[in-house]
Amino acid sequence: MNGPILAMMISGGTSGEGWAIDYAMEVEGPRVVVEGTARILFETYDDNPCLQYEFDVPEGRLAGPVISSDPGQPMLGFDTVTHEEKSVCVEWCERANTQILHMPYSLPLNFIFYVIRDRFGPDDVPKLLAEWGDTDSAWDLNLDGTVNGQDLAVLLGSWENNDGGTP
């Protein structure tokens, strides 16, 4: 990487009846990365816990890591995922596995997703150009693995307004 990435990290976590979720939310240039682990908790064989959680995120498009089995797509193995303007809502329900010999137990689910800004302005151009040619950059807006002309086209195609202002 050619220049420093200014990042802000927020850690979060909460739990409900039969579930827990821990995650970190980090701002990397034009994207927010949310990574963590959800757990469904079983106390008895009769438990059928459900996790429902809403992440507060900035506006943008949902994406995921370039290096994965499904490049550029979010890694969210939950039963249901909905993305609206400023939130990502997940739901996950499981039944207790009677083959497990020991109670209590927990079933983990790791996840990672990005929310990439979809509005840009004049301050963003030099930031993208400073990362030109990099293969591991938050400014890889089209998620092809390299910051190049296609990313510049995405940035210019998402220009905020004629004055060049950003929100």
Low-pLDDT residue intervals, each spanning 5 or more residues: 1-8
User: How many domains would you count in the coordinates?
Assistant: 2
Which strands sit side by side, in order, in the main sheet?
Answer: 1-2-3-8-5
Give the class from helix and strand content and strand pairing: mainly beta
Question: What is the helix tally?
Answer: 2
The overall pLDDT average reads: 87
Principal-axes geometry comes out as elongated
**Major β-sheet, in short?**
5 strands, antiparallel
C-alpha Rg, in Å? Answer: 19 Å
Could you state the oligomeric state of the chains shown? Answer: single chain
| Distance between the first and last residues' Cα | 27 Å
- Strand percentage, roughly? 35-45%
- How many β strands by DSSP? 8
Helix content: under 10%
* Helix and strand pattern: EEEEEEEEHH
Notes on the structure:
The protein has 167 residues and is mostly beta strands. The chain has 2 domains: 7-118; 119-167, Type 1 dockerin domain (Orthogonal Bundle). It is built from 2 helices and 8 strands. It has helices at residues 124-130, 149-157, and strands at residues 7-16, 19-28, 31-42, 50-56, 61-63, 80-84, 87-93, 105-116. The strands form 2 sheets. The chain has a 5-stranded antiparallel beta sheet, with no helix packed on it. The protein has a 3-stranded antiparallel beta sheet with strand order 4-7-6, with no helix packed on it. The protein is elongated, with a radius of gyration of 19 Å.
